[in-house]
Design brief:
76 residues, mainly alpha, 0% strand
């Protein structure tokens, strides 16, 4: 049981890492802090496609990662 959970935890952590790395950046550096004030004030509509899917995948895998980690600590 413990070995299977460790394998699932490893897969979830790889998926979490990949989904976070594939997401687009929210900031544009110094130019974003100067020129991006209007977007932040009035809101910028988040894309409904690729970024939304990656955001949901990241959220689900992060929750799975935490739950599996706690289960493994409780078992061992």
């Amino acid at each position: 049981m413990g070995i299977a959970l460790k394998i699932v935890l490893a897969l979830v952590s790889v998926i979490l890492t990949i989904s976070i790395l594939l997401q687009s950046s929210n900031s544009a550096g110094m130019s974003g802090s100067i020129g991006g004030g209007a977007e932040q004030l009035f809101g910028k509509r988040k894309s409904q496609g690729y970024d939304a899917i990656l955001s949901k995948v990241s959220t689900v895998t992060a929750v799975l990662f935490i739950v599996l980690s706690l289960i493994l600590v409780a078992i061992e």
